[in-house]
Amino acid sequence: MKLTTQLEAILYIKAQPLSLEDLAETAGIEANMVADAILELMADYAHRDSALEVVEMPEGYSLQLRESCQEMVTHLIPADLNTGALRTLAAIALKSPILQTDLIELRGSSAYQHVQDLVAQGFVKKRRQQEGRSFWLEVSEKFYQYFEIDQLSEGFNEDFGHHSSVQSEKLALE
Q1: Which of 42, 24, 41 is nearest to 33 (CA)?
Q2: pTM score over 0.70
Q3: 54/62 Cα distance (integer angstroms)
Q4: DSSP secondary structure code for residue 17 in this structure
Q5: Which domains does the chain have, with CATH numbers?
Q6: 11-70 pLDDT, tens digit each
Q7: How far is 16 from 24, CA to CA, in rounded Å?
């Protein structure tokens, strides 16, 4: 199998950005061979009339849908999120990770259903608290991909999302 074909398959299967080192390790070859082959693969995609492209990102190389086809994704695979669920998702994103009990205090009891829907759709990850009966909630990789943002900065909560009390946050989200 041609090395560019092998790299294309790896990028497709992994479905996430991979560094040259990760690609080389997965393919079982030297990193310098991967560098040349990935450039060849990128050039090949650049000249194709294809919905896909190979792009270099800060995290590595990724096989992804071209920007010109992104609108199609929204129409073919829309997220079924109502306003309440979006507000709950925003609260989770701003406070991630957040205890479900704190989220319910912030958003009200309807957030239980929102969390269930958001977990089912893959926007939120839920894990049991080690001590206690609540769950830790945090946004998933799908959240970042779907809303086309890299990551929420660590200082984001302090700069924009942090309020002195849960009550003031509840008012801000309503």
Answers
A1: 24
A2: no
A3: 6
A4: -
A5: 3-72 (1.10.10.10), 83-173 (1.10.10.10)
A6: 988 888 899 999 999 999 888 899 999 999 999 999 988 889 999 988 899 998 888 887
A7: 15
